[in-house]
Specification:
With about 375 residues, the chain is mostly helical. About 70% of the residues lie in helices and about 0% in strands. It has one domain. Strands 1-2 form a two-stranded antiparallel ribbon.
């Protein structure tokens, strides 16, 4: 929302957009790390050393960069999923279940179409991940649009249903015969996404081994496609209109129910692409709990990124840094346990999400006063 006032010259004084998109998130992030530093001091460690280990662990060597971008890939998919729904006024917290079922679709293609070459399997896997994820999001979307069921409640329920369904399928249907672990057989080589170090090796570039794979580029493409859809298409305009004011949308001839279902379908499809990274790229088999909370972190990523693809990319990179750099930090400073890293992540979410408006009124008033003062020094426009 843009805050505005009227300047002396009669022109509207507004807060610059970069203040809301860039400055305020940076201030909240700095405060989160400041409080995290106080926690580190409280346990007897040097916060500057902790920051150094955190940054080095995330970007200091090739494998660290690969792991950071690998984590960021999942966060991009789930952050975009939350953002698309949010633009329609929906709080989709079912990304965990949608990613789970989307990964099932990707895995089934890799298991049962592995007689095809890789160039044919890849588009089928992308389509299956999108279709399965969208199908899992369709039911909560339909219930919200047609029956008035709240999407928060239904998506929470569907997360648990997805987990139970995957347990049943892997224990009773898809498990590899002769083994106890509830997982499928390994995919054949032509049904696996090439890792980034393998891709770079084709061009004669040496890069350390890491889970980073081809799905990272698909995540970047999805970011561009989401931006184009939301802000450059009629459907995106209708979706945003419903999110801002459903009554005005109806007055303008827009169907809220259609926009709600469309938003949930796209949101579920984006979440389903996590399966490309995890199932086809890293695990190379279907197994339990491969989502590992990425769907829930995507909520924080979307909030930090102001539901804009560029902001989501930056927020995903931040959380990828916290995941990978946090592991390095816990290794180098044993007193900072993995639970402490979760605390730091929670503080980032707290200040960038729940306390996002703590400094906003004062900062916006400051820039409004500056704009009004600048406007008063300009001559009034001629009548």
């Amino acid at each position: 929302m843009t805050v505005s006032a009227t300047s002396y010259a009669g022109r509207p004084a507004t807060v610059p957009r970069w203040v809301s998109i860039g400055l305020i998130p940076l201030i909240n992030l700095a405060l989160a790390f400041l409080v995290s530093g106080l926690v580190v001091i409280a346990i007897g460690e040097n916060p500057l050393d902790a920051v150094r280990f955190l940054i080095y662990g995330a970007f200091g060597y090739e494998a660290a960069i690969g792991y950071t971008l690998y984590y960021a890939t999942n966060f991009i998919f789930t952050g975009l999923a939350v953002a698309v729904a949010f633009h329609c006024g929906l709080f989709n917290i079912g990304g965990e279940g949608q990613a789970y079922i989307g990964g099932l679709g990707v895995g089934l293609v890799c298991l049962y179409f592995d007689f095809l070459p890789f160039w044919a399997i890849l588009p089928l896997a992308i389509a299956a991940g999108a279709l399965f994820g969208a199908a899992w999001a369709f039911i909560p979307g339909y219930l919200q649009a047609k029956r008035g069921s709240h999407v928060v409640i239904t998506t929470i329920m569907f997360n648990f249903i997805a987990a139970s369904l995957m347990v049943y399928l892997l224990v009773n249907v898809l498990i590899q015969p002769g083994q106890m672990s509830p997982e499928t057989r390994q995919f054949l080589p032509n049904a696996r996404l090439p890792a980034m170090h393998e891709i770079l090796a084709w061009f004669g570039i040496k890069f350390a081994r890491s889970p980073l794979n081809l799905s990272f580029f698909w995540a970047l493409i999805c970011s561009i496609l989401v931006w184009a859809f939301i802000w450059r298409t009629r459907w995106g305009y209708e979706l945003r209109t419903v999110g801002e004011n459903p009554r005005a949308a109806v007055y303008g001839g827009i169907s809220p129910s259609r926009s709600i279902i469309l938003a949930m379908l796209i949101s579920g499809a984006l979440a389903g692409f996590v399966g490309l990274n995890e199932i086809m790229g890293v695990q190379q088999r279907i197994l339990l709990n491969f989502v590992a909370g990425y769907g829930f972190v995507g909520i924080a990523v979307a909030l930090m990124g102001r539901n804009h693809p560029v902001g989501i990319l930056l927020a995903s990179l931040l959380f990828g840094m916290l995941y990978q750099g946090g592991s390095e930090l816990a290794f180098e400073m044993p007193t900072i346990t993995r639970e402490m890293i979760v605390v730091i992540q929670g503080l980032v979410i707290l200040f960038a999400g729940a306390l996002e408006n703590m400094f906003r009124p004062a900062i916006e008033r400051f820039f409004l006063r500056r704009a009004e003062a600048a406007g008063s020094r300009r001559p009034a426009p001629a009548e």
